Amino acid sequence: MRFDRLLQDGLVSSAGARADKVALIAEDGTATFAELLAGSTAVAAALQDEGLRPGDRVVVFMENSLACATAVFGILLAGGVFVMVNAQTKEDRLGYIIDDSGARILLSEGPISRIALDACAAAEVAPKLVVARAPNDVASRGSSFLRMVESEGEPRASGATPSDLAALLYTSGSTGTPKGVMLTHESLVFVTASIADYLRLGADDRILNVLPMSFGYGLSQLLLTAHLGATLLLERSFAYPAQTLRTLELNEATVLPGIPTIFATLASFVGASEKIYPSITRVTNAAAALPPALHAPLRELFPNALIFRMYGQTECIRVCYLEPELIDRKPTSVGRAIPGTEAFVLEDDGRPAAAGTVGTLYVRGPHVMRGYWNDPEQTEGMISSSDANGEYVLCTRDLFTTDEEGDLYFVSRTDEIIKTRGEKVSPIQVENVLFGLPGVKEAAVVGVPDENLGEAIRAYVVLEEGSNLDEAEVVRACREQLEAFAVPHEVRFVDDLPKTPSGKVRRKSLLA
């Protein structure tokens, strides 16, 4: 499957077909497709006036907003490569990304532009800082103001081709050092169309996004909106769940993408209120494994929704999904490869793993990254080959099994497997049991060094308000449902779990 379009062509096409339809509703404004394209075109012209050349990298250091969406498409229309950075990123990490990407321009907005200003000043080659809604103290230090609509110039043709880079998405992975995932126009156009296909989405959908657009899963909601001609309801975050649910209800959202920490919070609303949200027809989960215990409360809140269990990596955005009709029969599976791609499990010697045998997951297709920016050594370890069709094969370094029908099951990140008593234990296996206990809101399991066991299993548990669950009850439930070697040796009750800006639990922070 090949796509000869550029990533911005989805917006151009939707603006032509649905000019007056609302494309995006955010805290900082609402835009029709015609307005979103006009704003993006103005940004493109402004960027070219600032000296942007085809292929130049532009850092986008913004919160979820209309301005951020306009910046992304403006960079593409100008022929640049957008480099998304989470708005919670600190100065030193932002500075590293600036230097590593060789960004010529950095786009920011509002108060966080103070961090951007300091990071730019400390960079080896300082990029131009362009700020929307600049605070006075930032504007006075010489940054330019990004005119989202006022610019009357027309941008020059980008000259981009589908094989050119469209985005660098930085991810820490297992090393902790940010790595720039290189994604082309072709790969992002392809994966966006594939996701729209299997989620059965259309132009009438209204996607509610609380995930940061610096995160591949959050970015894909913006790209889906432009591709489909749908509407994006863009929240800055999930910091205020009740407000998010009001936005959902007021705008009759039909699609709710999320991660387990978000869905665990929503599950706590069940029982406290009889409120339901019938407009939602799709609930999607990626980034971390969805505990089956959350299926029931999600169905209570969203009685008309199909629940899609999915798995993906920044290195290809999305790998596989489970048909929602199979969720009761295969409650822990993440299904099969997305349309137009292949996913398969190999043993260490390169042979296909038999059903039930743990191996490493590999992915083949046009959605696979072209490598890590400025890091051929890491690239060699992840991109195992390029087949006869020119498609790349990605080694995910994640452990999976399959069932007799070929459906995939996530076991663990390679570096998260717990080795105890000579046995290998997947944290997910234990966490699924913990999530099934009444009163458990969140849980995470890690292995800690132990002189006799190799690693001892430690569980961290966040309880729902009012729960009196104790360690003995947790251990007893685990003994009833797990092998003896997989039962936690210690249970720690905590107020919250350390998380990444995208909401994933930081297991290594728990160990530290």
How would you summarize this macromolecular structure in one to three sentences?
The protein has 512 residues and is an alpha/beta fold. It has 15 helices and 26 strands. The strands form 6 sheets. A 7-stranded mixed β-sheet has the order 7-6-5-3-4-8-9, with helices on both faces.
Query: What's the architecture of the domain at 9-21 and 29-184 in CATH terms?
Result: 3-Layer(aba) Sandwich
Radius of gyration: 23 Å
Shape: globular
Q: Can you summarize the main beta sheet?
A: 7 strands, mixed
Low-confidence segments, given as residue ranges, are: none
Q: What structural class results from the helix and strand content?
A: alpha/beta
Q: In words, what does this structure look like?
A:
Helices cover 29% and strands 26% of the residues. The protein is of the alpha/beta class. Among the domains are: 9-21 and 29-184, Rossmann fold (3-Layer(aba) Sandwich), CATH 3.40.50; 417-511, 2-Layer Sandwich (GMP Synthetase, Chain A, domain 3), CATH 3.30.300. The strands form six sheets. It has a seven-stranded mixed beta sheet with strand order 7-6-5-3-4-8-9, sandwiched between helices. The longest helix is centred in the N-terminal third of the chain and has 17 residues, at 33-49.
